[in-house]
Amino acid sequence: MSIPPDKACELRQIIHNHLVKINIHGKIRDVLAETIRNDLEPGQNSLSEGDILRALHRRGIVDDVMKDLHFFKDVPDFELEPQTSPMPATHSIDKDLTKLSNSNVDPARRYLYLQVLGGKAFLEHLQEPVPLPGQVCSTFTLYLHFRNQRFRSKPVPCACDPDLQEGFLLEMHRECLGDGSKMADATVMLSISDPVHLVLIKADTSSETSLVSSHFLDWRTVLSSPSGKTCIAVELLGVGSECKVPAGVLNLSLELYPPLTETLSPDIITTQQSMERQKTAEKERLFLVYAKQWWREFLEIRDSHRSKMVKIFAQDENGMNRPVCSYVRVLRAGRLLESPRQAARFVSLMGLERAPLVGGGGGAKQEQWCSLFTFLCRSKGDCEDHASLLCSLLLGFGLDAYVCVGTKAKGVAHTWVMTRGTDGTVTFWESLTAHRFLHQSINPDSPPLVSQPRPSYPYRTIGCVFNHKVFLANSQESDAVELCRFEFHNQSLWKAMSEEALGSVCSPGSTTSLPLLPPLAGPSLEPGPASNQLELEMRYLVAEHRKDLGLTTVLDDHLSYVLSSALVAYEMERCTGTSCGNEEFQDAVRRAVPDGHTFKGFPVHFLHRNARRAFATCLRSPFCEEIVCCRGDHVRLAVRVRVFVYPENACAVWVMFACKYRSIL
Prior knowledge:
This protein is of the alpha+beta class. The chain has 16 helices and 24 strands.
């Protein structure tokens, strides 16, 4: 079995280090000198290679080299730590090839080794210059998801033929069938219709990410290979309005370990794939027939229902129409998120980006709902992506959560989340900001003198609500949110779709066209070093800016440290909605600022860690500029940065600028 190039280099380095350790070069020189002195025949000018090897064997040099090198029989080199435990192997989350030696690999189970051999024909980057060593350039990163396992490649420079050379070890374990201790044979693997989800992300020089392609790979062609290995070229298509346009080609190698004792014929694999497609197409056809009939019945209730925001289907990044209920799943974050409000804070830290629209469009919005894995890889998306993720997390925490489709002010389409309490209270969750609003219904029939609650939420109308099992259309006479009653059991207020019909196309495993639910990845960024690095950069930028103005800069380290408690309190308030620690911070500032001095502070919040972008944004505020450019007697400046890291490396970055100076009247 072949080994990856990176592992071959690592193996050569291990052997080289061992030879240096035992001083092999000195020993060979001693043997050569002795052999020439004692064994060279008169008239013989040189020794042959065989003579030298026999001399090395005779002196035991070869045995000394080999006795400390150990090899494992029938185990490939990328499995350096075989495990014999019958328990399932730990899934590798966002690991690249260089870390596979630390994976929990069990030689008693079946694995798929997927190797990326490079990219071709990414014509958008045909004129991309070759980056110089150390030069910052745009990069490609490939993300993989397969059966609860996530991987990520190393970033490579964008090019027409990008040098994507990576290997990923995918476990074929089937937890759902309870056969974790068995070796999956060809028949079992043929029934695993789960594809490998490939997502290619481009990051520009300012770390802004964009989605290049999202592709679902059916890997089962390798089951017909006698050698257990096959090479394929995968054409990646664009996304959104370019979903029919090729973006590039990836050359892949698929290899099974251990190899199959009996392979399947290509006809069997083709027949299985055809049957799955037919079964999926039939389910989708029947649901479409039911949805059309349900929509006709809904329109017969009132003519005004035609204008309501009732959305049954939505296009994903590949231009596929999917029921909106399929975008929501029950997602449990384990130890990564501890509460629903922390989950809302995490979702709000994902960036907001509308789907790009080629041409003007007169302000029209390009609709694109992304699959969850694609959204997590991009770390940004539209309000629909945020709402679907937040609803999935709230369902995982056991709440009765729904995605709401409606409008905000000026009739702008919007999507948010609502939860219903056991006491009937309705709470709206804004997924873009993590703000929560309590809904209080207004009775339009009340006398004019009766005081009515004033809505605090920004939402104007609501057309439908849904989650992973339920779809409900608003049948009330008015779709205004403040007049809406959320009594879902009342069929005169809400028209529900059949849960059985929705389950036939939206429940996990119901169709092969549905993407699998990926697990959340824990943060790999260390908040302490990230905070220190960004703070050093900010201090440098402040000093340089003041230097350009002809001002000196004296930083007060103690005052900078005092600001930490305020930044922690700000983030805690965003998570919990309650403020705490303000009294301690104010007391500490009073002690740090002498009598007769003035203190000014300016906190600001970012979703990125680009120091220059953040500093330029801060200077646009007159309050921050007044602090950074402070003039006076005995001026002391303070800068404090605190990076709070969440799953998927989503960051809440808090920066606080402060100054103190002697007041002169």
